[in-house]
Amino acid sequence: MAKTTKQPVATSTPSKLKKAEDTEKKEEKKEENKAVSRTAKAKKEEKEVKVEEVKPAQKPAKTTEEKDKAEVTIEKKLMALYNLQQIDSQIDKIRIIRGELPLEVQDLEDEIAGLETRIDNYIQESEGFEKSIGEKKTAIKESQALIKKYEDQQMNVRNNREYDSLSKEVEFQNLEIQLSEKRILEYQQSLEEKKIEIEKFQQVLQDRKNDLEIKKSELDDIIAETEKEENDLVKKSEENRKFIEERLITAYTRIRKNARNGLAVVQIERDACGGCFNKIPPQHQLDIRMHKKIIVCEYCGRILVDDGIINLVS
Ligand SMILES: [Zn+2]
Asked: From the CA of 285, how far away is ligand 1's center (Å)?
């Protein structure tokens, strides 16, 4: 049943076309007949006019013309999509490079803050040692004063017992002095060690501060450099989007968001999807090469293009 109803429809168009062609031919003949009787110059003019006259006669052929137009549009859409992907990938690249630099600067700033804290702690510890040395020096002076006092008292003792007792006090204070001197030496040693450490870390700190300055100016340069480039690309991306219908842009944006590498439009590479590397069936590949439909990868959903589109774009 379907076959029989289909057939008349299929034949009707060519018959119409034929009719149109016939009228066209008749008109052409008329024109030609007219032209024969005229000069060559006039004939040329007539030919130009003829082109215009012929136009209405071509009307029935418009259906195939429209079909061609639709195909070109899909091809153009694919080209626009591929082009858009190239632009957006460039923008991604710029943003990644710029995204890593602030992190490096941040790392350096953190390291510098850590070093400064460490140096501050060492300085405080050093101050503690200096304070202790001062205390021990005071203690020595006090012991020396006591010794002098005991020795003076020994001049006026009434018996040996008192004298011996004072001698023991003097001996004790002398031991205290020795102990304090020992401690002072220890503190001085620690102080010396801290001093070396502080110098060492201050050198490291200075190096890091220099690194930071370099990185910061590098970052400023890159930001200034890439900002213009990025803005130009964003403008180009927006202009390109105008050629693509909303539905496709939405799909493109969604695929790009879900894809780790931001690729929504990929090329066929060695019979496989350039995004997920799954094999593409031969029939699918054929359809892709025809540029008559927008075909997505059945595994990852990315829009697929062949090198024909890429060549057309470049
Ligand atoms: Zn895929």
From this structure: 13
d(CA 13, CA 64): 11
Tokens of 18: 């034929």
* Distance of CA 86 from the midpoint of ligand 1 (Å): 18
Report how far ligand 1's centroid is from the alpha carbon of 309 (Å): 18
CA of 172 to the centre of ligand 1 (A): 91
pLDDT at 25: 44
Structural domain spans, the chain: 2-57, 91-241, 245-313
300 CA to middle of ligand 1, Å? 4
Options 1.10.1670.10, 1.10.10.10, 2.40.10.10, 1.10.287.1490; CATH of 91-241: 1.10.287.1490
How many angstroms separate the alpha carbon of residue 264 from the centre of ligand 1?
Answer: 10
Give residue-wise pLDDT tens across range 173-225. 999 999 999 999 999 999 999 999 999 999 999 999 999 999 889 888 888 88
- Give the alpha-carbon dihedral of 216, 221, 222, 227, to 10 degrees: 120
pLDDT digits (tens, 9 = 90+) for 18-31: 444 444 444 444 44
74 CA from centroid of ligand 1 (Å)? 20
Q: Is the CB of residue 122 less than 8 Å from the CB of residue 201? A: yes
Q: Is 37 helix (H, G, I), strand (E, B) or coil?
A: coil
The beta-carbon contacts of 218-224 under 8 Å, at least 24 apart in sequence, are 218/101, 219/98, 219/101, 219/102, 219/105, 222/97, 222/98, 222/101, 223/98
What residues does the ion ligand 1 have nearby, CB within 5 Å? 273, 275-276, 297, 299-300
Strand partners, 265: 303
213 Cα to the center of ligand 1, angstroms: 45
